[in-house]
Amino acid sequence: MKQTDLRILEKFSFSPDSAIGALSGVACLEDYLYLIGDDVRYLLKTSLKNKLTATTAFEKVPLFESSEQQALAIFSKAEKPDFEALSCIIFNEQPHLLIMGSGSTEKRKQAVLYNPSNHQFKTLLDQVDYDYLQHCAALTGGADLNIEAVCSDNRHLYVFQRGNINHFHGVLVFDLAKIQAHKSLENSFIRSFNLTLPEINGSVSGISDAYFLVGQNLLIATAAVEQTLNTYDDGDVLGSFILLFSPDGQPISSHLIQSAEGKTLPIKVEGITWLESRPDGEVFLLVTDSDGGDSEVLKILLANSAFIK
């Protein structure tokens, strides 16, 4: 990888007391930017026309009716819903946001579909769906369920397991039309594949988010290297990658996130979304979770050379 393939354009930090939470997902839909934290039950929303700064005021959008009656606060690790995946999908011909829990505990088995046009939300995946995912060896390889990413090409839904414990990085592909027709995940299943991910100093990375770049017909994923022995506890972060795959999981290119001086940044990237095209490449937004420290939003450029197959 050439260092010029990936460049950080801007970076914004949010302190732990800013109520931003541990950022785990990011999405751009129409004229708005949405952020989600794994320890909150609301979306953070701001206009894309606003210049993003460390003091940007975000609207809090409750994800459940009961949330409107509760203080929109940050949850403890044991109580948090662990929303790890945020993605834009077309559902019933309308753009929606899908917010998906990791499924690593019973409190984390929920996936919510939010329609920004009418502010309505509903449960998309229920306990039966999560039980199917939990017992699907093609996804987990027999390890505990730990969903970290979901994305869509408008016809399929891709669900990613973070397999840094057993090095099994499974991906399941579902027929979105069947899900819209109220079929279960099991009855909407199309195929599965495994990803090969890079390492840092012998420690394997784990998928942390994904975005389907329809114009390039590519899966754009992020992967973080975290030294942990299970799917629940946090560990030392060594760095993060941006990875390009074909729709069937064949690797295209790998990009370690580094400073302008070429040093690996010890950040845990948890979310990615496409922002805009430029003559010299594609611009994405990344969000990081620093496990109690400052959360960050990074604007990065992937040069056109990164997409050469």
What does the secondary structure layout of this molecule look like, with pairings?
Elements lengths: L5 E9 L8 E7 L2 E6 L4 E6 L11 E4 L20 E9 L2 E8 L9 E5 L4 E6 L1 H8 L2 H4 L6 E6 L3 E6 L8 E6 H5 L4 H4 E6 L4 E2 L2 E2 L1 E8 L4 E10 L8 E10 L5 E6 L12 E10 L2 E8 L6 E9 L6
Antiparallel strand pairs: 1-22, 2-3, 3-4, 4-5, 6-7, 7-8, 8-9, 10-11, 11-12, 12-13, 14-15, 16-17, 17-18, 18-19, 20-21, 21-22
Describe this protein with a few key phrases.
309 residues; mainly beta; 4-stranded antiparallel β-sheet; 4 helices; 7% helix; 48% strand; DUF6929
Report on this structure.
With about 300 residues, this protein is mainly beta. The protein has a single domain, classed as Neuraminidase, CATH 2.120.10. It has four helices and 22 strands. The strands form six sheets. Strands 1-22-21-20 form a four-stranded antiparallel β-sheet, with no helix packed on it. The two termini are about 15 Å apart. About 0% of the residues have low confidence. It holds the Pfam family DUF6929. This is Phytase-like domain-containing protein. It comes from Acinetobacter beijerinckii CIP 110307.
Strand order of the largest sheet: 1-22-21-20
C-alpha end-to-end distance: 13 Å
Low-pLDDT segments: 67-71
User: How does the overall form come out from the CA principal axes?
Assistant: globular
Beta-strand share of residues: over 45%
Work out the number of β strands. 22
Listing every helix as H and every strand as E from the N terminus to the C terminus, the arrangement reads EEEEEEEEEHHEEEHHEEEEEEEEEE
Average pLDDT level = 87
CATH class: Mainly Beta
Helix content percent band = under 10%
Q: Which CATH architecture would you pick?
A: 6 Propeller
Nearest-angstrom radius of gyration?
A: 18 Å
User: What number of structural domains do the residues give?
Assistant: 1
Oligomer: single chain
Largest β sheet strand count, sense and barrel closure:
4 strands, antiparallel
Structural class: mainly beta
Assign the CATH topology. Neuraminidase
Count of helical stretches: 4
